[in-house]
Target: BD-FAE-like domain-containing protein
Amino acid sequence: MFHALQLGYSGGCPVIVILPMRLSSLLPALLFGALLNAHAAPTHPSPMKLDEYLALTGPAPTARLAYGPAPSQYAELFVPQGAGPFPVAVLVHGGCWTSKFGGIRQFRNMAGALAARGIAVWNVEYRRVDEEGGGYPGMYLDMHAALDLLAANAAAHKLDLERIVAVGHSAGGQLVQWIAGRARIPAGSPLYHPDGLKVDRIVSLGGLADLRHEAALIKSSCDRDIAQLAGTPSPERPDVLVDTNAADLMPNGSRTWLVTGALDTISPPRVAHDYAARAKAAGDAAEVVILPDASHYDEVAATSPAWPHVLRVIEQALGIQ
Model:
C-alpha cells in the first residue's frame, strides 16, 4: 500500500510525494528533525592560536628587493594580474618586535589574498630587537628605507602611490602608526627623514602602538621594555618617546582604523578604543572595528572568519568600493 502526501506548492502546482504506507507514519518526525537541523546554531571555528598562526603561508612573491645589507633588510613585492596601476598595501608583520614569533612568511597569507583582489602588496621585513642593528634606531630606519625603495620601484611595477595604505599587526601596528606621523619627528632626531613617502591611511590590527601609555601591557604581553623599542635617555634625547611613540606624533592628518579581535588578549579592544580617543582629541580621524569571536591571530589570517571584515577595512582605506 502507498500513501500520497502533499508537501506544498511550486509554481502554483501541488508538490506530492508517494511513500510506502509503512514509512508515511515516520515522515512527521523526519521532517521535524530536518527543521531542527536547519535552524540549529551554526558552528564557528575556534579562535586561532599561536601555533596555527605560525603555520600560515601563502604564494611566493613576484619579487624580493633588498633595501639594506642585513639579512632582514628586504621587502617582498606581490603584483596582481592585470594592467594596473594598482593600489598598494604596505604590510608590516608583528611578533613582539623579535624574530621568535615568525612574521613575513605568515604575512604571505594575507598578501596573496590582497593580490587576488587587485591590490599590490609590499610585505616588509625589518631588523628586530634580537637582531644586530635592530630596535632603536634600526627598525625605524628600516621603515624609512623600505618605503624609499617602494617609491623608487613604483613606476616599474605600475603601482599607484596615490592609493596606499599601511597595514600592521601587533608590533607591526606600532610601526605603521609611527609611519603616519614620521613627518613630525624633530629635525634633531636620528629618525628625522624629510620628504619621505606620505602614508596617511593606516590599518592597525591588534596594534601595540602607544609606547607611553601601554608600557605595562607591552611588558606583560611581549616581555619588551620600552628601552628596547625607544632607546635610553641621554642629555641630547631626554624623552625617548618624542620620536618613537606614534601617539606623540599626532596630529598628523592621518586616518587610522584600529581593528582588534573581541577575544584578543595581547592587545585587547580597550587599547584600540583608548588610542582612537587620543587620536580624535589631537584632531586626527580614527575608527575602531571589533572582530567578533576573533583572537589576536585571526586578525591577520585570510582563512579566518574575521577576514571579510579586515578586507573590507583595507579596501575602504584604499577607496575601493
Q: What stands out?
A: The mean pLDDT is 89.
